Amino acid sequence: MTRQKKTRSAGPNGLRHLSAEDARKTREPKEETKKKGSGLKSGNRNNVVAIKTEAVKESGKKDKRIGSKTPVSLTPQAEKPQQPPVLLQPKASLAKAKAAELTPQQELALIENDSYLQQLLERVEQNEVLTGKDAKYFNAKTARLEQLMDMLGLGVDTDDAEIDPLAAFESKDWRKDLLGDED
């Protein structure tokens, strides 16, 4: 078999070139549709305004586009003295809400009945170290408790028999009594 060289031409099996007349015959015709009208009919804008003004008269609303008919004087007039603006006072005053003041006895009762403080006290008695918010809360409440106890005279009572007589002797300044020094 002899070898045949490939060519670019379509050859006898390619598409046939149609004449312009034949191409028109094979083409499908376009559907004929009615031409759409674009926009409003001519002269319609004048009719719309007339219709709108009639509608305004019927509804009682004014057209915003029409200006004011009040006359404006073209000569300068004396200016009226301006009154200072009236400062309006509020009818209600704003105040921070205050907590009800408690008597020392009531406050002492609240601290003694504080369950959270009782839990912290139990933890301290078990030699547990409090930290953070627990420690701050415990310290604040115990300090306030001591203040209230001192205010109410309920502090720790010390009997005279329990006081060391030597400490009482040393705390008293006998020099003033014996020597009469006023220094």
Automatic annotation (TrEMBL):
GO molecular function, one term: GTPase activator activity
Record has Transcription regulation as a keyword: no
Short name of any one Pfam family annotated for the protein: YihI
Keywords annotated in UniProt: GTPase activation, Ribosome biogenesis
Residue segments, region Disordered: 1-86
Highest taxon of the lineage: Bacteria
One GO term of the biological process aspect: ribosome biogenesis
Regions of compositional bias (Basic and acidic residues) in chain numbering: 18-35
Keyword Kinase: no
Name of the molecule in the record: GTPase-activating protein
Organism: Rheinheimera lutimaris
